[in-house]
From TrEMBL:
Domain AB hydrolase-1: 124-386
Disordered: annotated span: 1-86
Reaction(s) this enzyme catalyzes, per UniProt: [phosphatase 2A protein]-C-terminal L-leucine methyl ester + H2O = [phosphatase 2A protein]-C-terminal L-leucine + methanol + H(+)
Role: Demethylates proteins that have been reversibly carboxymethylated. Demethylates the phosphatase PP2A catalytic subunit.
Organism expressing this protein natively: Sporormia fimetaria CBS 119925
Top-level taxon: Eukaryota
Name recorded for this polypeptide: Protein phosphatase methylesterase 1
Length: 415
């Protein structure tokens, strides 16, 4: 393991606030403040809200942070601002149901959607990382709406992060393989197409953070392609070499998390004080979606303490799939069809395969050294600027092609 990785892990562990609760069964941050989807199949449901409101300037976010070790910690007594909710960032909230078939289990997928405003406008697909949620993209979506006002944005919750896939009518699936997660992404896109009555999928740009980056990279490598309208894809702060190297430390990191919180405000405060997130505004939008409230089962003694907020997703349960997520990712990233961009925070670096690919000009690279792992939350405006520039460069609908020779001849013009 490199000295850089060791130093980063050591500083991360030493900076974590002392746990106030027992964490004998550590679990990760996960999906949403929304009520969890029903464990029985149902019809599609939607909640509509006004379009996203204007975004604050990036100076209000975490761009003033110097580094992961230089961030100023707020005092524990400082009041935490109230959480914000999804209508500030997306047009609608949808639950899309997939009936069971011989080849696919039943599913209920949870997404947030702002549809594209024209038939040729691109649709940006946002896939979060393990233990995170669709609302981790809230501020990024808000900034993207300013830079790409006609583009659509779809942020999804992965299975057991707000969406649910059933092995049987009453048993949620525990399959977290890359293949299963990729199948979920493709299903969500086609269900959204049906819901919106699109003749075909709009031009697509896939954006994935961490595990989400591995999922979208896998999808782009499939043959034949399941997404013929794909323009390109963007991976946020994950590199195969670094990810594989860090897996041995994941259990230690999880063990240093509190297992529960007495309130959502306490959870928000912990994420800021532990420097997991460096942007308080993004923490207010995303952290509530990572938790569920569970009251003690007095008959069996199961569950948490009454009124405690606990992690929605048990990240420890996904351990058998961790290496499956990232092994071979660099090769698939370089070989996938479509334009490519990699956005890294200062704590990550290219592995050998990506370094060679970058020198050969196979993908665009951005590094934001002031951000942490949740780069899209820490510096949403800078991330949005890079994404918008990438989309504009690769949006074929914006190209104006010269007339064909046959058309000029038909018009009686000399060639």
């Amino acid at each position: 393991m490199s000295d850089l990785a060791k130093t980063f892990i050591k500083s991360k562990l030493s900076s974590l606030p002392e746990n106030t609760t027992n964490n004998s069964n550590p679990t990760p941050p996960s999906s949403s403040s929304k009520p969890p989807p029903s464990t029985t199949n149902g019809t599609n449901t939607t909640t509509k809200r006004p379009p996203p409101s204007p975004s604050p300037s990036d100076s209000d976010s975490s761009t003033s942070s110097i580094s992961s070790t230089g961030t100023i910690l707020p005092p524990p007594s400082q009041a935490t601002p109230p959480p914000t909710t999804w209508p500030s960032y997306f047009t609608s909230e949808l639950y899309l149901t997939r009936p069971a078939t011989p080849n696919q289990p039943a599913a209920k997928y949870h997404i947030y959607l702002t549809p594209p405003q024209t038939p040729t406008s691109p649709l940006l697909i946002l896939h979060h990382g393990a233990g995170s949620s669709a609302l981790s993209f809230s501020l990024l979506a808000q900034s993207l709406h300013q830079h790409l006002p006609t583009a659509g944005i779809l942020a999804l919750d992965a299975r057991n992060h707000g969406s649910v896939v059933w092995d049987s009518p009453s048993t949620p699936s525990t399959d977290f393989s890359l293949e299963a997660l990729s199948d979920d992404l493709i299903s969500i896109l086609h269900l959204t197409q049906q819901y919106e009555s699109w003749v075909s999928l709009p031009p697509l740009v896939l954006i994935g953070h961490s595990l989400g980056g591995a999922v979208i990279t896998h999808v782009t490598s499939l043959t034949p392609t399941p997404l013929p309208s794909l323009l390109g894809y963007i991976v946020l702060d994950v590199v195969e070499g670094s990810a594989i190297e860090a897996l041995s430390h994941m259990q230690t990191l999880l063990a240093h998390r509190p297992s529960s919180f007495s309130s959502v405000d306490e959870a928000i405060d912990w994420h800021i004080r532990s420097r997991t997130l460096r942007n308080p505004e993004s923490a207010r939008a995303s952290v509530p979606s990572l938790l569920v409230i569970r009251k003690k089962d007095w008959n069996t003694g199961a569950g948490g303490q009454p009124g405690n907020w606990e992690w929605r997703t048990d990240l420890g349960a996904t351990k058998p799939y961790w290496e499956n997520w990232f092994r071979g990712m660099s090769g698939k990233f370089l070989a996938g069809r479509g334009a490519k961009m990699l956005i890294l925070a200062g704590t990550d670096r290219l592995d050998k395969e990506l370094m060679i690919g970058q020198m050969q000009g196979k993908f665009q690279l951005h590094v934001f050294p002031t951000a942490g792992h949740f780069v899209h939350e820490d510096v949403p405006e800078k991330t949005a600027e890079a994404v918008a520039e990438f989309v504009k460069r690769n949006d074929r609908s914006a190209l104006v092609l010269p007339p064909k020779v046959s058309e000029l001849l038909a018009q009686g013009k000399k060639v």
